[in-house]
Amino acid sequence: RQWLGLANYLHKYTKDYAGLIQPLSSLLKKDATWLWRPEHQAAFDSVKKSLASAPILMLPADSKPFHVVCDASDFAIGFALMQFDDEGRERVVSYQSRQMKPAERNYPVHDKELLAMRYALIKFRVYLLGEQTFAVYTDHASLRTAMKSPHLSQRMARWLSFFAEYNFVVHYKPGKNNILADALSRRPDYDPRTVLGRQVIDDEDEDDDYCAVCIASSINLTNVAPEMDLRDEIVAAYADDAVYAGIVAYLRAPSDETLGALSRNTRNQIDRYHLDGDLLCYNIDKFDAPRVVVPNDDDLRARITHEFHDSPMGAHLGREKTFAAVSRDFF
What we know:
By secondary structure, this protein is an alpha+beta fold. The chain is built from 15 helices and ten strands.
């Protein structure tokens, strides 16, 4: 139902859209039996493909102003870069979302919304920096005044210095109207109740096909936890990598001894590494999302690349695009 709400919002200009989603809509009728058949999967795949095609997705036009919609849930942030086309239709240039880190999930609500705004500006920096005044739409009204408050936390003060680089105006957009960003920030596979790509559902009607899709699409480790055997394989391979074994040992038990065992170059970059459970992660810079470190194991790297390419999220991209996509989440 939530996913169809997003699709309905984006497809208001799409020809024959009602017929396209009819198999899916029938599942939501009162007293309808929930049974996912091939025709439902075909309809779902068709709608999903159309979301990344014209007239929904468009190339950025430098001659037209950009605007950003963003939102935060309890466990994720979502945002999109938008423009209006020549016919006045709102079009998507790029969708983005990511799962919150454990510490970020403890932020106050307005800080979560600011986090979504900040990350959107980072992701869309190449389009927005130096741009004439652009609009940022959020469903948290207090953000309009929070950035002018004389009582700021250290975190907010740092973020405001970052925001000062951009020329934008914040507008309030109620959640019921902020459909796109709201849906992106509430992806079920970002919910911390999802364990290793498989939903924790106490209902007897757990959908095994859906869970299989979750697992198949979970190769993107920064956004979705990997399936268990791949995660374990990555963690186990750290022990056989001379460099990363030392880093993991230091992060698990920081001491002069474990730090001294590292090379000078590694010691100089040690603050870029952290452990997410047993997974070693690396930040290229302070604005970069953490990337999962992959040990120097050719077979393991090939498996990650192949699984990403063959997964639904991988979309069977070409070699260079697949490599670029994997490189955003792995190091």
